[in-house]
Amino acid sequence: MVDKLTAKQREAALKRLNGWVYDEAKDAIHHVFKFKDFSEAFGFMSRVALVAEKSGHHPDWSNSYNSVTITLSTHDAGGLSVRDVELAKAIDTILV
Amino acid sequence: MVDKLTAKQREAALKRLNGWVYDEAKDAIHHVFKFKDFSEAFGFMSRVALVAEKSGHHPDWSNSYNSVTITLSTHDAGGLSVRDVELAKAIDTILV
Description:
Chain A is of the alpha+beta class. Chain A contains three helices and four strands.
């Protein structure tokens, strides 16, 4: 099991992430990523999939041509947890 | 350019597809696919991505762990076209 982040922990975590937006209603973070085309978008998705599978924590995400929307929250915690922050950081690293 | 299907063409096409549902409000078809786990779901998505890129027609789709929801419509046609039916058929073929 993993605990939900407190408001203070969440605010500190968001400062270390790049462009992720907190959704209070869902207690989740999301980010819309834009690419040149579908090939580039799906290439990114493939890299995220490998990171997600390796860490055992998976995103809710959607894709439409060059756009990828990723939403992260932790089902077991009932909201945003350290697992989401770690996956978000790993996704940010892919794009550096 | 490609034309929207007529109601008659659409009904005939849906009969040849496997489990796709027509959404009148969106003039689109969608299908929710369930898999064993994320690995199997993303493996399927990778195969769909290759088919989509090859045909130059891409889905709107989302994934959450073992579930993949695919929605097909043709932006240029303003609704469902033969391109969507062909992509749906190709996706069905992956799962045979």
